[in-house]
Amino acid sequence: MYILGKEEVEAACKVVESGRFFRYRGTETSTFEKEWSEKIGVKHTIAMTSGTASLISGLVGLGVGPGDEVILPAYTYIATALAPLAVGAVPILAEIDESLTIDPQDVERKLTPRTRAIIPVHMCGVACNMEAIMELAQRHHLMVLEDACQASGGTYQGKMLGSIGDAGCFSFNQFKIISCGEGGALVTSRQEVYERALVYHDSACFMSTYSRKLRIPNFAGMNFRINELLSAILRVQFTRLDGILSALCAEKRLMMKELEQETAFTLNPIHDVEGDCSTILSLLFESPEKAASFSRDLLEENLIVDSPLRSYGMVYTQWEPLMQHRGAHHPACDALKLTKFPVTYSQDMCPKTLSILGRTLHINVSITRSQEETMDFVGRIKKVAQSY
Ligand SMILES: *Cc1c(COP(=O)(O)O)cnc(C)c1O
Fold first, then answer.
1. Cβ-count burial of 161 within 10 angstroms (0-12 exposed, 13-18 middle, 19+ buried)?
2. Average of per-residue pLDDT across 318-337
3. Cα 13 to ligand 1 centroid, rounded to whole Å
4. Is the pLDDT of residue 214 over 90?
């Protein structure tokens, strides 16, 4: 979350005063869904309690289940990796490339006759190589569920992220570009994907009136419904999205322009610079030792940069349930134990990912720094870079 103002407070107050918290009693959620569909350029949006809920409902919508394998990157938030297990499918980890997004060539290597879907993750607001992924998916008849949880409003070759694959997922938790504390959305233009996800996220549509209009039979689901209070806040946040993105983009462009000549590091490649959400600037070094010493030297200049290896829960080595091969609370529900084609997960299974992350440093882009402050910030990075 980058901006929070009195508009969010007023919108939330209105809902409290109305007493209409339930999404089918008010209009905030349905209005947000219409607005988001229009923005993303899809037929349907289902707002939900979280990005995780939208990933799981998306997999249900795509018909993914037991016996299926789902390929996803070894660098993403843990929720991406756990979502397949929630529908009985097996997560298969693929390496990332220097863009820090899934490496399409490694996806190709990880294919088996059981592969059903790919979850490309637009990590740090940077689009995946969607051209290669969509081509590969078409060639092998695979479904694509885009994880755009860190990339609200980003684009790839002029298309909104989330609208390129069969379905897309967004998160509006505290740490995302726009936020209502906890929230998410699933988007799709495919009717059957929409209907299955709708039923699944809404306790078999027991409380709603649309169930009679569905073309599919309803089935047992969860309750992942968002409430009106959160949707009202989200609608205000949505009005801020374009402003946040253009401010982020302006600062990142300035930093990139100033730093691209440096020889101590290179800037991690970006598949579509125009569509980058610009939340993070990534610097790539020749060796992990160089990256570590550069980060120590920056600290002396009072600049704090992060190693993506230390980011919380984003690297596969930290995904304990997978590393311990515990895919569910009960062994009889555990896709990792039920599969006839067991998969092993180990700390060293994606060496290329660990190498790239170890050589990368992350700088958070800010929307509150003035141009002078940004130049001063960049100047200190350049000063350190000169001694390399
Ligand atoms: C935040 C995030 C999620 C999950 O979102 P929640 O709303 O916290 O459930 C999934 N994937 C990625 C890449 C994320 O960054």
1. buried
2. 96
3. 27
4. no
Q: Write the CB contacts of 20 (distance below 8 Å, at least 6 apart in sequence).
A: 26, 228
Question: Looking at residue 21, what is its pLDDT?
Answer: 97
Residue 301 Cα to ligand 1 middle (Å): 33
Whole-Å CA distances, 328 to 23, 82, 236, 324, 334: 31, 10, 37, 11, 5
CB 188 within 8 A of CB 166: yes
DSSP H or E run through 7: helix 6-18
Ligand 1: centre distance to CA 79 (Å): 6
Letter for the amino acid at 4?
A: L
| Cα angle: 338, vertex 344, 345; to 5 degrees | 120
Mutate to test the pocket of ligand 1, among 46, 49, 50, 52 (most ligand atoms within 8 A of CB): 52
Alpha-carbon span 287 to 356, nearest angstrom? 9
Ligand 1 pocket: which of 54, 100, 145, 150 to mutate (most atoms within 8 A of CB): 150
For residue 239, how many other CB atoms are within 10 A of its CB? 11
> What beta strand segments (E) does 148-225 contain?
155-156, 159-160, 167-171, 184-188
Q: Which residues pair with 363 in a beta bridge?
A: 281
Instruction: Indicate the helix (H) or strand (E) that contains 234.
Output: helix 228-259
State whether the beta carbon of 184 lies less than 6 angstroms from ligand 1. yes
Which of 231, 203, 233, 237 is CA-nearest to residue 218? 203
Tokens of 241: 């999205």
Residue with tokens 């990912």: 353
User: How far, in Å, CA of 374 to CA of 364, rounded?
Assistant: 12
Q: How confident is the model at residue 159 (pLDDT cuts 50, 70, 90)?
A: very high
Place of tokens 């660098």: 75
Q: Tell whether ligand 1 has an atom less than 6 A from the beta carbon of residue 173.
A: yes
Residue 300: other Cβ atoms inside 10 A: 9
**pLDDT cut 90: percent of the chain above it:** 93
